[in-house]
């Protein structure tokens, strides 16, 4: 899918694979603001949560994660849902390389948001319309909080 760069290529892929999927080439509506609990989100493009191998052994973000959040900002998306857990919630619910919010990592987590904001400002000039949401996670059968 990543190799499909245009709407025409995507539609051709759908036809060739007998996939029935309504497709609108006009995405202007996605560039309109959205109101959520009195907060204006600048557009309707959102980055969905990711979890997994996003941190070092201290549970702080590594360089690849900072680069990814910078690219999220560059994309122009104004909403990002971030998957995070507190140590007390991850006893049986996380993997050891999942980001953690605690006194040791809070500055690193704030730096991710600032990286996203700076890159978003380079692309769209505004950052007062950004929103970060948090998703509490549970790794289910894949949980192994003590194993590295």
Brief summary:
The chain has 148 residues and is α/β, with parallel strands linked by helices.
What does this structure look like?
The structure is a single chain. Residues 88-93 have low confidence and may be disordered. The strands form two sheets. The chain has a three-stranded parallel β-sheet, with no helix packed on it. It is 28% helix and 14% strand. It has three helices and five strands, in the order αβββαβαβ. With 148 residues, the protein is an alpha/beta fold.
Give the overall silhouette: globular
| Global structural class | alpha/beta
The strand order across the widest sheet is: 3-4-5
Rg computed from alpha carbons, rounded to a whole number of angstroms: 18 Å
| Terminal Cα span | 32 Å
The helix content is: 25-40%
Return the domain count: 1
Largest sheet: 3 strands, parallel
Binned strand content = 5-15%
Please count the beta strands (DSSP E, at least 2 residues each): 5
Total count of helical runs of at least 4 residues: 3
Order of helices and strands: HEEEHEHE
Q: Give the uncertain stretches in residue-range form.
A: 88-93
Mean pLDDT: 79
